[in-house]
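Final report, Chapter 2: Outcomes

The project's central promise was a pipeline that accepts a single protein chain and returns its three-dimensional structure in a standardized token representation, suitable for archiving and comparison. That pipeline is now operational. To close this chapter, we reproduce one record exactly as it appears in the project archive, with the input sequence first and the structure output second.
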Amino acid sequence: MSLIIAPKEKKVKSFWQIQKPLRLVFFGTPDFARIILKHLLKVPQYEAAAVVTTPDKPKNRGQKPSASPVKNLAEQNKIRILQPAKAQDKNFIRQLKEINADVFLTAAYGQILPQNILNLPRFGALNVHASLLPKYRGASPIQAAILNGDEQTGVSVILMTEQMDAGPIILQKEIKINTSETGATLHDRLAVLGAQAAQEAIDLWIVGKDISAALNAQIARPQDETKATYTKKITKQDGQIDWQKSATEIERQIRAFYSWPGSFFSANDRIFKIIEAEILPEQKTAGRLFLTKNNRPAVGCGQDALLIKKIQPAGGRILTGQEFVNGYKNLFG
């Protein structure tokens, strides 16, 4: 793991060395944000004045309202919770003003904050993003890194602007992507890395009396817009496998979309989700299930084939490749 500080680390007197504690409002919703918040709650120089998260949403068959992971953590620590349906809600903005925060920190919150909210805290609003910006702005940077076969990725902490993920970079940390990395494992590693980066970035950024002093200290650098790339929000349908793609592309998809939305295909009117696969240098008809010479299940792709190591029938348990062969012999030609 390497650390990049933009443009260079400056030896300046941190705000929290002058006035304790630092009043922080945390914006976040999923588990990625929860991991970051949990780390920050252990920092004695910070006071979590409030947590902002999305409203509870109906979940599962009973449609019972379910709280976000960030809300659950806030309740456990008796932190004030705000859950506006829309960030522009007048009552919500009034509540934020009354908190009189020193800084806002966001991580996978789920809403774009307007400039009138970003202007409220003394030192502005910072955001933790799971990529090395300006690469992979948007909703799915973790999956994009695996899908594209990147060898490294990381986290960026930026000063927020109204444009999505486009603000000046305060600090970045990078890590290598393992060849067996899944979306789930990389998510957890980047969340831990993001927590460390968030604390380091805050301590770098909070200098002088206000945001103007921090900007004058040239701690942050603007992003290179010519290198910006974007990701989209992933849907359930994105998990459907296109067997015309190469085995390399499909194997990356299987890892990137684990554990959600998964990578699936249909055979004999049943849905199967591939959990783990391996590239097989053998050419067969794309989409055709077949058995290798040693009786292992595989499927043809646009280029090469894919050896199925773990698979899950809809509504069933995860099967090994051999269990799949034994239970579904009629699928193999």
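Archive annotation: The longest strand covers residues 270-280.
This record, like all others produced under the grant, will remain available to the consortium after the project formally closes.
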